[in-house]
Design a protein that fits this description.
Length: about 240
């Protein structure tokens, strides 16, 4: 029996993309919840796994050469799991490069821009109209890029469902049905098609019971300066 992978994560887009991959690939795993509002990511034990103090992190006891592998950065984890299983990443050719392209697009553009919008719109104590407008506009532009592509292709890498789709989905699945988000019919259809997959449905619910009321998904109740310190302030920058 294959020893389970340990997944350190929480109910965020970057965490969920890895749980999607693990569920889709049928890999056994155990969950270690990291409460970022409580400061779990700053503990010596967690920083020994990831000095960048972010989740997700995986520990695969059956890594390359049979040696244990600790790996962080969600895109790198998806790439590793795809190569480990030989699934959801074309073995060669144009489709493989396109899967890598769209994975990098999510890592370099969708995640950072959507995340910065959420920061300034929801979490920042002081509201800066320029910052909100800047990241909202960039988020809208990226939605248009994805909409244009998916109006002509079934999946991001073409004809096959890949880790690129798994990477993008958690960042956009809560956006496409928001009132006022228009002209994203192809992107919305892609989201609904993915969310109909049993593995995706299960993966999106991983750690959902742990959602904090102080987060966007929890309704933004009682977020205070202590939480901001853990995420963006003194606790985040004290090493």
């Amino acid at each position: 029996m294959t020893a389970p992978i340990t997944l350190y994560t929480g109910p965020t887009p970057n965490g969920r993309k890895v749980s999607i991959a693990l569920e889709e690939m049928g890999l056994p795993y155990t969950l270690e919840y990291v409460d970022i509002l409580e400061g779990d990511q700053h503990t010596p034990a967690f920083r020994a796994l990831n000095p960048n103090n972010k989740f997700p992190v995986i520990i695969d006891p059956d890594g390359p050469g049979g040696e244990e592998l600790v790996l962080w950065e969600s895109g790198a984890i998806l790439w590793y799991l795809a190569e480990k299983t030989g699934r959801f990443l074309p073995a060669s050719g144009t489709a493989r490069h396109l899967a890598h392209q769209w994975l990098m697009f999510q890592m370099a553009s969708v995640g950072p821009m959507f995340g910065q919008f959420a920061h300034f719109f929801f979490y920042a104590k002081d509201k800066h109209p320029y910052s909100i407008e800047r990241y909202q506009s960039e988020m809208r532009r990226l939605l248009d890029v994805m909409e244009e592509h998916l109006s002509q292709h079934t999946w991001f890498a073409g004809d096959d469902y890949t880790i690129a789709d798994m990477a993008v989905l958690p960042w956009v699945e809560g956006t496409v049905d928001v009132p006022g988000i228009e002209n994203v019919d192809s992107l919305r259809a892609w989201v609904h098609r993915l969310k109909a997959r049993p593995a995706v449905t299960k993966a999106l619910d991983v750690a959902r019971e742990k959602v904090r009321k102080e987060t966007v998904e929890g309704g933004m109740k009682d977020l205070d300066d202590t939480h901001r310190s853990q995420l963006f302030g003194e606790a985040q920058y004290t090493r």
